[in-house]
Hints:
739 residues; mainly beta; Maltoporin, Chain A; globular; Immunoglobulin-like; Ferric Hydroxamate Uptake Protein, Chain A, domain 1; five-stranded mixed β-sheet
Amino acid sequence: MVLDKDSRQPIPGAAVFVRELQKGTVTDARGHYRIDQLCQGSYTLVSRILGYKEIAQPVTLVHTAEENVLLTEDDIHLQDVTVTAQRAAALNSQTVSQLEGKALDQTRGQSLGDALRNVTGVTTLQTGSSIAKPVIHGMHSNRVLILNNGIRQEGQQWGSEHAPEIDPFIANRLTVIKGAAGVRFGSDAIGGVILVEPAPLPTTQTVHGELNLVGFSNGRQGVVSLQTEGGFGNGFGWRVQSTLKRGGTSRTPTYFLDNTGMAEQNFSAALGYRKNRFRTDLYYSRFATKLGIFSGSHIGSLSDLQAVLENGKPFVQSGFSYTIGRPYQQITHDLLKWKTAWKPAAGGDLSLTLARQFDNRMEYDLHRPKNDSLAALNRPELRFRLTTYTGDLVFEHKPVAEKLTGSLGISGFYQFNIMNGRPLIPNFRTYNAGIFWIEKLKRNRWEYEAGLRYDYRHMQVFRYENRVLEKPVFVFRNFSGTVGATYSLTDQWAMRFNAGTSWRAPNVSELFSDGVHHGAAAYELGDRTLRPEMAYNLSLNSEYSSPNVQAEVGFFYNTIRDYLYLKPQSEPVLTIRGAFPSFKYTQTDALYAGLDASVSAVLLPKLRGTSKVSLLHVQDLVLDQPIVMTPPNRWENSLRYDVKTWGRLQDVFVGVGNVWVARQNRVPPKSDFLPPPPAYSLWNLTAGLTVPVSKKHTLDIGLTVTNLFNTVYRDYLNRFRYYADDPGRNASVRLKWTF
C-alpha cells in the first residue's frame, strides 16, 4: 500500500514503478498497488504523486513481496489561479463567488469591504473615505454574517460606520455566499455570508512566506505586511503574520477631507498538529485601528447644517496631515480560537470549535472636554466592550452508497456588552443555541439537498429609566429551512435552484438606541416593540464555463416580513453636541428582487473582455413605495491584455475598466435630507508582472489607478454624502516578495 506518513491514510492515484525495468502501476482507491511478472532479484521501487516527496527504496524479491510505501507531504508552489463561483462550505445550490490568487493580490492593502467590490452583486456602505462595509444584494451589517477563520465575527456591527475588524492579509481566499445561509451558519445570515479563509497550515519543515508592500497616492498611505510559515516536523505546522498601515488626509478632486487619517497594527499567529486521524489547531489574532472621522460631518447649529446641505461643501477645509484629531474611533478586536477534529475508524468527521472574542470600541467626540487633564482627554465619550464566547460541534457522516452525504451540528454563543459614556445603547447579555441537519444526495447529473435548523435566543437588557434600573428580557425562537437542486446539463453548464426561509432577531441598537451616534454623525432612535424579521428566499442561477467563455446569470426574489431599517426623519435634531440628521428604526414588509450577470470572453488572442451588471429592486410592501439607502444599479466593463512570458518576465498584463453607477431614482418622496446624487462613471487602470528572481523567489509588481480622470461624484451609499464629495484619483503600487 501507499500511505500518508503522518495520517497513515491511503493515497489513491499514486504512481509506483520499478526503476530498473520502467514497469509500474497506479494505486487504487484504497491505496493498493500490484506489479506482476517480476524476476527474483534486487530492484528500486519509486513512488510519486503531486503534493508528496518522491521516494525511492530498495526491494529484494525472492518469491513474492509486500512493500508499504510511506510518502511525506511536500509544498509545491504553483502559479496562482483565480477561480470564481466555485462551491464552498455551503449548500451547492447557492450562488458562491471566490476571490483568490492574482485577483486577491490586486486588492491588497484595501479594507475587507473595498476588496469585495470586485464580486458581482457586492457593493459597500461607506462612512466617509476610510470606512466601508460589504453589502450583498442590498443587505449589510446584521443581515450579512462574516466568518473570520471559521468563527462568526462579533463586534459592534450594527453601526453603519462600524467596519469589520478583520485584516484581509490573513486570507488566501475570500468567499461570498449570496442569499440566505441561515441553516448552516445560524440566524442573521439573511443577506449572505462572507468567509475569510486562511490557507491550511504547512506540515513540512521548509520555511517560506511573503512580504507585501503597498503605497496609495490619495492619503499618502503606506502598508507593509509580512507572513512566514513552516513546520517542525512530526505533523506540526505554524504561521505568523503582521500588518502595519498608516494613512493621512484623503482628498476629493477639489479639496481635502479634514481629519480622515488612519493607523492600523494587526497581528496573528497559528499553530497546528496533524497525526493519523487526529488534527488540532490554535489561532490568535489582534486587529487594532485608529480612524479619524471627517470633521466636516459634525456641525454646531441647525442653520450651519442647512447651509452645508445647500452649498454642498464642508465648512472645514484644510491641507494634508497625518494627525488624527477629534472626532475619531479607536478599536481593538482580539480573537482566540481552538479547533480539534477526529476521524473515527468507522468513518465520518467530528469537529469541535471553541472561540473567545473581545471587541473594545472607543469613540471620541469633536468637542474637547472642559477638563483639559490628560485623563479627561483620553476618556472616550462612548466605549463599548463586547465579549463573545462561541462553540460549534459538527459531525459529517461518511457517504452512504457513495451518494448521500450530510452533517449534523449544534452551536451556541454567550455574549455580554459593557458600555460607558453618554447614553446610546444599554448594557446587555445574550444566550443563543442552535441545532442543524443538512443532507445532500447525488444521482447522475442531479444533486439534491435539504436542511433544517432551530435557533433560540435569550437577551436581557440593563438600562436606567427615570433613575430606576430596568432588566427587560427578550426571547426569540424560530426555524430556518432550505431545499435546493443542481442540474449539470453538460460538463460546462450547470443550473442551480434554492428556496429557503431565514430569520433575524432585532438587536439591542434597534430596540433601545437613543442618542447621538457620533461616528455616523446622526441621532438614532430605537423601538423596543420591534419584532423579528422573517425572510422567504428564492434564487435561480445558471453558470457556463469553457476555456474561452465564462458566464453566469442569477435571479433572486426575497420577501422579508417585519423588515427593520433606519428611516430618515423630517427634521434634524439639535443637541448640546451639535445639529445632526435624525433617524428612527422602523418596521415594514419588504421585497428584495434583482439580477446579477457576468460574462468573460476571449475577444482576441491574449485579449479578454469582461462585463458585469447588478440590478436591484427594493419595495416597501406596506406603503407601496421604495425604501431608502438601497444600492443603485451598476454596470462594469473591462478589457485585459495578458502575456504569459515576455523575456524573463511572467504574467505580464495591462487592463482598463469602467464602472457606471446609476442615479438611485427609487426613493420615497420627501424621505431624505438631500435627493440622491447624479449617476457617475469612473475609469480604472491596472497593470502587473512577475519577476522570477530564483527558483524559490519571485517578485510580483502591480499598479492600479482608480478614478483615473479625477471625477467629482457622490455615492448614494456614502453616509457622508450630505457633507462632501467622494475621494478623487488614487494610484497604488503593490510589491509582493515570495520566499
